[in-house]
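The pair is quoted verbatim underneath.

:::
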Amino acid sequence: MIPLRRRNKLPQYNTEAERNGLRAAGRFNAQLMDFLRPHVQPGVTTNELDRLAEEYTRDHGHIPACLGYNGYSKSICTSINEVVCHGIPEDRQLIEGDIVNVDCSTVVNGWYGDSSETFMIGEVSDDARRIMQGAFDALWIGIDAIHPYSTVIEIGLAISKFGQEQGFGVVENYQGHGIGRKFHQEPGVPHVPFRKSRLDVLTPGVSFTIEPMLNLGEAATRPPLEDGWTVLTEDGTLSAQFEHHILMTEEGPEILTLTENGPQRGHQF
């Protein structure tokens, strides 16, 4: 009899060509984030960031994964302050004190890459800095919780424990996901423990994202706005998110979207 925790078969990428395809997609996605980095500043509109992202991606021969995905109208997501995720770029200028999550997803020779960072716009409040630090630390806590043949629930257990200890709300109804030849595939990667995640085994070759969304207040979110995408915190408090694309290998989790110029493990905001 197959042990319960090993029943689910997740998409795997085990040839060197497949893994190199994933690595190339993650590497370009990180490169795109570094390209956008100096432009994320006061006075810039999120539409301008979107235009820069699309041009840079196409100039390198690649495809913005979000553009047209289920009707989404832009190339990146830009989620400001109390927006939890899926904020649509617009003509609103970033102003001093904002925090904004920039979520980039690209297709490189048929392979998907996906990552996000939350940026401080000028001087921000202590609360803004604290929720950014919490989301960043939660990402690394989730990564450090796993190893070959661990299960997805271990990510949710580690991140939810950290969130509770710090007094943050860990968003439950939006999660990470498998990624590879498809943008979204199994496994779902919740950042709180769900029973189903006990069955999803991270064998070598599984490719997925970890992308915890932490709220300064309660975990609850409002239904998407009329645009069908933008999700806000229920209580209007700040939210922050960081995301990496990960390939589980025989040696452990390989982070595919590490940037050259962005915050690295242990960074203090």
In short: The first strand starts at residue 63 and ends at 64. Confidence is low (pLDDT under 50) at residues 1-7. The first helix runs from residue 16 to 36.
